[in-house]
Fold this protein.
Amino acid sequence: AQSVTQLGSHVSVSEGALVLLRCNYSSSVPPYLFWYVQYPNQGLQLLLKYTSAATLVKGINGFEAEFKKSETSFHLTKPSAHMSDAAEYFCAVSDPGGSYIPTFGRGTSLIVHP
Amino acid sequence: SQTIHQWPATLVQPVGSPLSLECTVEGTSNPNLYWYRQAAGRGLQLLFYSVGIGQISSEVPQNLSASRPQDRQFILSSKKLLLSDSGFYLCAWKGGGSNQPQHFGDGTRLSIL
C-alpha cells in the first residue's frame, strides 16, 4: 500500500524567502507524483507532476519539485515566496500499476509573512 | 478544453433534511469521477469514486450515497443529514491512466444546523 507523508502541517516563511515543502512517499515501485495547491474556499489546482521523465519538474507560479528515488522524496520548492503563495499544498502519489485512486498527504499550510 | 462544474457553492441545511450535490464534466468522455470531503483544517477524505455509468465504489460507510446517471454527471445524496456531514465537498475527474492528474471543482461548503 502506498502512503504519503508531508512533514509539517504548517510552514511559515517571510516574503522573498525560499519555500520548501516536504513530501515523502512509500511505494514498492516508483510512483507518479503530484503537487496541488488549494486556496481558501476553492478546489485543488495542479501545480506540477512527475511521470518518470525528467526528475526536476517545473510547474506553475514558479514552483518546482525534484524526484529523488533514493530518498523517496518529492519536495516542492520556490526560490522567493510571494504573499499570494499562501495556501494549502497537497502532495499525492499514484500507483503506475493502474489504481484509480491517488493517495494524498494531509497537506501543508504555507504562511507567508510580509 | 475540459471543465468541471459543481453546485451549489454554499448550502445551509437543517439536521435530518435531504441532500443533493451535483457535479458535471464537459469536454471529455468516460472520466473517472470522485467525491471528497474536507473537514475544517483536515485533509481530503475520499467518499466515492466511479469508473463508469452506474458503477459506484464507496470508501467510507456513512449515510451518504452517490450515483452516476450519465457519463459526465456525478451526484452526492443523503436522505437525512447529520451534524457530522458538515464540511467542504469536492468533486473531481481524472482521465484514464494513473499518470493523469485529478481536476477538481470549486467545491460546496455544507453547513448543517
In short: Chain A is about 0% helix and 50% strand. The mean pLDDT of chain A is 93. The CA atoms of residues 18 and 25 of chain A lie 23 Å apart. Chain A touches chain B at residues 32, 34, 36, 41-46, 49, 51-52, 90, 92, 94-102, 104-107 (CB under 8 Å).
